[in-house]
């Protein structure tokens, strides 16, 4: 009986956590604007990208809980040349911004535009 109760309690906590994460995801989609641009100050086998998030709301968001996916789109053929998932290291302040860097494995000699979105 105690085992069944513990299992139900854990199930209830899991469902509550899932509901909270959906609400937080909706709030992030409403409040946060993501952008990305190439950072030519670093060199390597791929490209170095700076990802910026702007917070349009009066609430801060933990950067370590704010994941994104950035894709490099070839300007030559419009295809996705590379994708990287990352997260911010610092808190995203109310009405403020935060930045982080990621490396994308793709041809560094090509020109790219970027598509960035919350992940997953």
| Beta strands, count | 6
Total number of domains: 1
Q: Report the total helices.
A: 1
Low-confidence stretches: 1-20
CATH topology: Immunoglobulin-like
What average pLDDT do the residues reach? 85
Output the helix-strand order.
Answer: HEEEEEE
**Which word captures the global form?**
elongated
Q: What is the name of the CATH architecture?
A: Sandwich
Largest sheet: 3 strands, antiparallel
Strand order of the largest sheet: 1-2-5
Residue share in helix: 25-40%
Based on helices, strands and strand pairing, what is the structural class?
alpha+beta
Radius of gyration: 19 Å
Strand content: 35-45%
Query: Kindly, what is the distance between the CA atoms of the first and last residues, rounded to a whole number of angstroms?
Result: 38 Å
Which CATH class applies here?
A: Mainly Beta
Features:
39% strand; 120 residues; three-stranded antiparallel sheet; 1 helix; disordered N terminus; alpha+beta; Immunoglobulin-like; elongated
Topology:
Blueprint: H1 2-31, E1 32-38, E2 47-55, E3 67-74, E4 80-87, E5 97-104, E6 112-118
Antiparallel strand pairs: 1-2, 2-5, 3-4, 3-6
Characterise the protein shown here:
It is a single chain. By secondary structure, the protein is an alpha+beta fold. The protein has one helix at residues 2-31; strands at residues 32-38, 47-55, 67-74, 80-87, 97-104, 112-118. The protein has one domain (32-118): Immunoglobulin-like, CATH 2.60.40. It is built from one helix and six strands, in the order αββββββ. A three-stranded antiparallel β-sheet has the order 1-2-5. A hairpin with a 5-residue loop joins β3 and β4 (80-87).
């Amino acid at each position: 009986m105690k085992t069944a109760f513990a299992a139900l309690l854990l199930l209830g906590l899991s469902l509550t956590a899932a509901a909270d994460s959906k609400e937080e995801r909706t709030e992030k989609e409403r409040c946060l604007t993501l952008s990305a641009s190439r950072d030519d100050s670093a060199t390597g086998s791929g490209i170095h990208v700076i990802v910026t998030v702007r917070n349009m709301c009066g609430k801060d968001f933990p950067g370590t809980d704010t994941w994104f996916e950035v894709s490099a789109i070839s300007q030559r053929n419009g295809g996705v040349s590379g994708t990287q998932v990352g997260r911010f290291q610092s808190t995203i302040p109310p009405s403020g911004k935060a930045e982080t860097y990621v490396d994308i494995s793709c041809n560094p000699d090509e020109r790219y535009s970027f598509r960035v979105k919350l992940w997953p």
